[in-house]
Amino acid sequence: MTDPAQPSTPSPSTASSEPPQDPEPTASFSQNGKTRVLYYGNTEVDATPEDDGIFTTVTVHNDTGKPVNYDIDVSIGDGVDWVASNKFRIEGVPAHGVKSQASTVGGPHLGPIPQQPKIYIDALETY
Q: Global pTM?
């Protein structure tokens, strides 16, 4: 007996016994005053221009049922030649919990501080 909602001959995608994989998160941005915010999956990066660099906060939302550690490489720049990077290591995020880490990235030694910073997540590892 065939289900009228299904094709009578299975296509390669419906014949596969592999579970579907989660799609890659899509980056989205917002602006809150002078703070630029990047949302990427369960990760949020806030970048606020200050006199001594870009004050950057990384927040992770652990939606799993066990504690998770995060290593996140973040770059902040102006899209031309001002670029600074930092690794954020956020350890022991409890199951279904939230944890943040902040630091100032870059500085005036790289040139004028970008007032509309561009945010990049270069690497994101969980363990």
A: 0.80
